[in-house]
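Q: Got a minute? One more chain.
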Amino acid sequence: MPLRRDAYRIPRNYGPKIAAIGGGHGLSNLLRGLKEYTRNISAIVTVADDGGGSGVLRQDLGMPPPGDIRNCCEALANTESVLKDLMHYRFAEGALAGQSFGNLLLAALNGISPSFDAAVARMSEVLAITGRVLPVTTADVRLEATFENGTSVVGESVISKYKKKADCRIASVRLLPERPQALPAALKAIREADLMILGPGSLYTSVIPNLLVEGVVRAIQRSKAMKIYVCNVMTEDGETEHYSVSDHIEAIFRHSAPGLFSLCLVSSGRVPKSAAARYATEGAAPVVLDEKRCQELGVEIVTRPLAAVREGRVMHHFQRLAREILALYSERAFRVAGDRFRS
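A: Always. Here it is, folded:
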């Protein structure tokens, strides 16, 4: 008998060990939902960003970009609303215009800590977060994209601009320097996970960069965790225009290993016409599900109603997404346990 969608409710201290791998707003959105189900969360975050306030601090202070790390810490925070508002505060003028207080706090902690990961751990203590936030590497890395026309550009912040200008697909991405060493704690979290989640988030600039770090793919392959890829609801302007679900999966496998995961969670239901029309002006659209091709890649598709529209943007509803992931995990875990018991 299948479990009800809301059946997964056990004390959070005893929830499954989750390794959530990605970056950007997609990962932080996921974490907001997951923390309601388990305290055993390890967010493994890309550090290839070089734009905005993060890029400025990276260039001026020689530190890894703080933005995605900060967003994940905020998502897992259990602090008073004033501190949360302070973390979100962005200076409007002067030399700090556009910079967030959260980025500056992490930069200051990095200045008084022996390493960047130690600074992240201290920030986690300040915000009393649920779980852990771990940079996938502490190496100074840049992201390089090679396009189908043979041109290569370096820097996450310029990849989207060039793609739109050249109007051709991204063929591959790599880190410079290549194969940087992973943070040992990140590899340990992957090895010990019960449930591993890739995405949602920007395919080439948030998800795949983590897989280019030395040891990460091997650790995922060896892990006995249930592995789920959460596909984006919409294609992304300047990155994945006209991509189907299988295109996303193929890109991940091409940069890691075939069969890295066997489950893909896809949002069902239609995107409201008004929202779709706004995205169309940007060259973006709902990601098309081509299930037969996904099956040929060895990936099972699970569809659930996950999307929400907020301020005109289509995204995963963080509570629905977490609920469906945990329900799927509990269904499969109980099924496997039952099969073993009967055998």
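A: The first helix runs from residue 24 to 34.
Q: Perfect, thanks.
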